[in-house]
Amino acid sequence: MIQLKSLDILGLGIRLDLKPETVMPLSMSDPDFEKITPAEIDLSSGTVKPGPDSPPVLGIKEAEEHQQLQKKNTRILAGIFSLLLFLVLGVIFLLPRFVSPPQVDTATTVALTAPASRAPQVSPYEEAQRLQQREDAQHVLAALLELQKALDGKGVQQWAEQEFNEVVEQAGAGDAAYREQNYTQAQVFYQNGLSTLQSIEAELPTRLATFIAQGAQAILDGQSDLAQHAYGMALLIEPDNEEARRGLARAQVLNQVLELLAAGTTLHENKQFEEARDLYRQALTIDSKHPAAQAAVNKVNKDILDRNFANLMSKGYASLQANNPETAEESFKQALALKPGSPDALAAIKQASDQITTTLITRHQNEAHEHEQNERWQQALDAYDAALAVDPNVVFAREGKVRSESRLQLDKFLVSAINNPLRMAEEQKIHAQVQQVYSDAQLIPDKGPRLSAQLQQVAIFLEKALQPVNVTLRSNGLTRVTIYRVGEFGQFTDKSLSLTPGNY
Predict the structure, then answer these.
(1) Residue 334: other Cβ atoms inside 10 A
(2) CA–CA distance from 472 to each of 227, 249, 487 (Å)?
């Protein structure tokens, strides 16, 4: 039994009023020292739930400030613990020297009884280890919260819901271990959650590429909603991704493009090619990258080309049948311009050219024949030359040219003989030549009226050229007369001579 009223320890001004209560030593394991636990943190929102005796911890910055506050509190608590230990030692060893036994009539009787049992003492080393373990767990948790915040900004719960739920489960298990002061196990759970988030972060490029590919395929499949969702997920992961932005814009107008393509297809099937092409081009104006729209434009352009080509070819063959090869050739050349190198067009052009050649040669042949019939040998020769200019190998033209040239020379010779008949009488050589030509010309079949008349006239001249003609010459009797190639007749007044036709 110790009877105490009050005590000023060592004159330090610290006064203790002792009451009949049992004073238990404080321990670092006392719940009053637990100001906050990571279990209060809600990973799904990135915030910290405030405990009943601690301020809320929100996000990474607040978690770091909380850690600094805990370190400060730890130092303060260590100081308080040292002071209390000093006071307890003072009470035990120094107090009895300065306290006199209490008077029975004035003192308050205090019965000090030892407690039945006390909590086991925790050594400073063990306490320091626990503090370090808690700090390590909090560091892992801070990293987890920081990465979670970054992924939340990318909509992780929308495109990695299952993995994120696993992180929440791991964090919850870590919180439970933390509340039980099993900081090592809590760190393991937090690390598992952090590793899962790190795996998600590492897969961001792959997930981005996958969503973009899904969007592109959905556009090809005509699924606007699916394409918009895929590109939307891609933009959550990387908001500045230009490919995803363009893809989303295309997906948003996809239904309009598909409606235009469907209407164009109906017109296309009804052979309304130009109208269909207009709709296809409108679709391309809305989405210049849509493969079906571009393919539709290409197809209708080909169909228009084929139709126009076929029309020109039909027109050309109709002209050939109408014996108008020049018009046909022009149509075939237009068709060839539409399809350069087309074998059909080239063959048709050759056919038209051959027919033009044939027609032209036939025309020249007919002209030459007509001129021959009328014994217009110069014109006939010109016609044969024109035919040979079209085709030098035409046999009738080559033969006709030789015949026309021969008859033309004969005609010229006979005309000259007829126009100068006295030459036949004056020159024996000319007479013989005309006689020979005359004889050869008689062998020509189907002489024609002109040649026959010429030969008759020449025959007359040939005969008369050799028959003497009685001529009476009269002179004045004073002039000496000489006739060239006949002789000298001297002077006479009248002279009768027999002379062949000619100039004397």
Answers:
(1) 17
(2) 132, 128, 15
